[in-house]
Amino acid sequence: MQETVLITGGSSGIGMELAGVFAKRGYNLVLVARNVDRLGAVRDALTAAYGIVVTVLPLDLAMPGAPEALVDALREQGVVVDVFVNNAGIGMYGSFIDADPEKLRAMVRTNVMVPTMLARMIGAQMADRGRGKVLNVASLAGFMPGPWMAGYYATKAHVLSMSEALSVELAPHGVTVTALCPGPTATPFMKSSGMERSKLVAGRKLYSAKKVAEHGYRALMRGKRVAIPGVRAKAIAFGIRFLPRSWVARLVSRAQGPR
Ligand SMILES: NC(=O)c1ccc[n+]([C@@H]2O[C@H](COP(=O)([O-])OP(=O)(O)OC[C@H]3O[C@@H](n4cnc5c(N)ncnc54)[C@H](OP(=O)(O)O)[C@@H]3O)[C@@H](O)[C@H]2O)c1
Question: What average pLDDT score do residues 229-239 get?
Answer without folding.
Answer: 96
